[in-house]
Amino acid sequence: MLTRRVVIHVAAVLLICAIALGVHSAASNVAPPLAADVRADSLLVVKSRHELVVFAHGMVAKRYAVALGRGGAGDKVREGDGKVPEGRFTIDEHVARSAFHRALHVSYPDSAHAARARAMGVPPGGHIMVHGLKNGLGIVGGLHRTMDWTAGCVALTDPEIEELFRAVPDGTPIVLAP
């Protein structure tokens, strides 16, 4: 019985150390905040690199590591497929109150995605957002990027979405690239 207790205790200590190391690694890789006077003129999400790039005056202002949809690579085809759409869209709304800590709504579906879904007889989906973490889970921080977990959105930490919420006006173009 003592051996089993020791094994459980050692496993618990190792788990706590691994979590602490992960939190430290995530915290130590934090880039400086986006300058308060930056106004984005476009956004680019490169899905294969799990990266969101903010452009201001045509220059890179900041890069963010992101989590994506759990549906894997490829373009969104239908509601519920868990994929992030690909194409040129617009940030068309700031959502201050949602299930996630702040969100920027993406103008998906465009006419091409809607037509393809209609031809397939399936709904195209919608409610694609660039958002923070689920309300109440902000403490997870950068660890959320260890896996793709959204329903087809682009996810950042809460402090990061606060920066974008301030810097990205409605009407800003966003390209979601493979």
Question: What does this entry look like structurally?
Answer:
This protein is an alpha+beta fold and 178 residues long. The chain folds into two domains: 1-30; 34-177, L,D-transpeptidase catalytic domain-like (Beta Barrel). Helix content is 26%, strand content 23%. It contains three helices and eight strands. The protein has helices at 2-28, 111-120, 158-167; strands at residues 42-46, 51-56, 59-65, 87-95, 103-106, 129-131, 154-155, 173-177. Strands 3-2-1-8-4-5-6-7 form an eight-stranded mixed sheet. It is globular, with a radius of gyration of 19 Å.
Keywords for this structure?
eight-stranded mixed β-sheet; L,D-transpeptidase catalytic domain-like; 178 residues
Q: Helices, strands, pairings?
A:
Blueprint: H1 2-28, E1 42-46, E2 51-56, E3 59-65, E4 87-95, E5 103-106, H2 111-120, E6 129-131, E7 154-155, H3 158-167, E8 173-177
Parallel strand pairs: 1-8, 6-7
Antiparallel strand pairs: 1-2, 2-3, 4-5, 4-8, 5-6
